[in-house]
Amino acid sequence: MSEPKTVLLRREGGVLHLTLNRPELRNALSIAMVAELRAALAAAEADASVRVIVLRGAGGHFCAGGDLKDMAAARMRLADEGPRVLAEMNAAFGHLCGAFAASKLAIVVVLEGVVMGGGLGLACVADVVLAGETASLRLPETSLGVVPAQIAPFLVERLGYSQARRLAVTGGKLDARQALALGLVHELHVGADLDAALQRVLSEILRCAPGALAATKALMARARLHAPASLVDEAAEAFTKAALGPEGMEGVSAFLEQRKPAWAPL
Q: Roughly what angle, to the nearest 10 degrees, separates helices 152-159 and 161-170?
């Protein structure tokens, strides 16, 4: 991939840190940023040495949502290209959220400062969400006369229909503690404790076998849409494949020998 301009990439062992880097605009999601995030995710998924992605924002804010300048520019093209120009721009963000939600990698999001619109959508598709006490979450679309179109399905999935609907019709505002109480945020930390918590979570994830983690995420994704009884045979097949595979063999051996498995950091 070409060198990103709106996203900073940093490798730390098996962890890829992606930092939204438009601090002057509170890391608003531009069309370019969406494309760079998708490219970075695809490259990480193709690299067997990457096991976790951490997503956070530069300058004390996570993300102020979609870049309204891009929307204004798209509207200028309506006369020539019709409504599809706006639809394609909106769908690009939906595909980004879908790609992160379906990733085989562990996705950790760190929230600080402003978390609006599309930023809230990215938080909803993460496996683990950590927040600092400065995090302020908003779903402002309806107050702007638009629809949180790509965010809404992930918000319903994360919070349930009742809470998602409440946030949508009130132009929802949540502070970090309220987001924690709703389950949108998993952990809330003050000051430097946030970075310490991130390191702990990364250590916990890296102790899990990458193949087993990916298979578990895939099974859980299907479990959202199917009755448990309908997945019995599929789950048994997944278990058997894992148990007889190299990770299963190594994991059992490591347990019996009282040592760390090969995939765990030293």
A: 130
